[in-house]
Amino acid sequence: MTDDQKSTAKPYIYDLDLHELTALLKSWGEPSFRARQIWQGLYQHWWRQPEDFTTLSKTLRQRLVDKVEFSHLRPITELKSSDEETLKTLFFLPDEQPIETVRMRYNKRRTLCISTQAGCAMGCTFCATGQMGFLRHLSSGEIVEQVIYFSRRLAVQKERVTNIVVMGMGEPLHNYQPTLDAIRRLNHPEGLNLGARRFTISTVGLVPQIRQLITEDVQINLAISLHAADDELRATMLPVNRRYPIADLMDAVREYSRTTRRRVTFEWALIQQINDTPEQAQKLAAILKGMLAHVNLIPLNPTLGFKGEASSQGRARQFQQILENEGIACTIRLRRGIDIQAGCGQLASR
Ligand code: SAH
Ligand code: SF4
Fold first, then answer.
1. Is the beta carbon of 129 within 6 A of some atom in ligand 2?
2. Quick one: how many helices (H) and strands (E) in the chain?
3. Is the pTM of this model over 0.70?
4. What is the CATH superfamily name and number for domain 74-340?
């Protein structure tokens, strides 16, 4: 949204932090406790529209109807995986841009995979979102509302969102401030109160933003989409590698890990005969030696625009074995939601 649009459009309630909401209410001559009541309605009861705010006067409810936008997400389609554990919802934003959000059940976990952009500008060859190109950044509220939408639905079954992975459409660190603002809002003690450690941001490796993340006061988990252990191969898969080669990326990640004392996850989509060779495994082991790291191996999920195939089970195990022999923690991730195109890198509206 441009500054021009901002000044004329109605404010969108999920774009506001408590401070801004208080200022808005104050400009209407309302005391600050009213802002807190609204905040609690939004983030503790997941009320959907002004009419639901029965704690407020009728006049104030009407003012909210007239002056504030309560939703940007219009659910269009919903797909459930055959095992019923994964659910993917396609939403349209007010300007008809598409985004997708995925809800996963795993034991007691209820994990949401949320989007930060419609499309993505990073162009990774094997990723469906990359293949569709960049449409636009989401506002912080559009990121937050994905979580509220599913919180509301889970509440019906007396369940709650337990974890958030910022791994849906888009590159979160390319939309840095709105993503961080959204996490802070969801983390707010008087709101949803989701602990910072329940968030994982996955990035293709934007070095300056990783360095900036080190200076933030939120202790979130970081995952790095590495996928290749030398610049030559990585640049063919992830164009961003030409700007931020592996050595620079790893310098920033090591600093992140040293400063925050947090274990960093490295993601690796295993592609048959491309990046699943013993040589790549050895190089990866050398890169991660001595670091607090965990490697997630994800057999490639199919996408329309990429010809490579997922590694066979045998090759995946061999890759894992080489890492483990070098003392590096490593898991082969279950492929989930593939039948509904809800797996990693499969989000794109069709
Ligand atoms: N833009 C961020 C987060 C969204 S992508 C990032 O790239 O990290 C989420 C994860 O899915 C990333 O690790 C990405 O590399 C991976 N991914 C993309 N396409 C994939 C595919 N076809 N199969 C398996 N994983 C894929
Ligand atoms: Fe964007 Fe991540 Fe897909 Fe790359 S893998 S195109 S950074 S969403």
1. yes
2. 12, 12
3. yes
4. Aldolase class I (3.20.20.70)
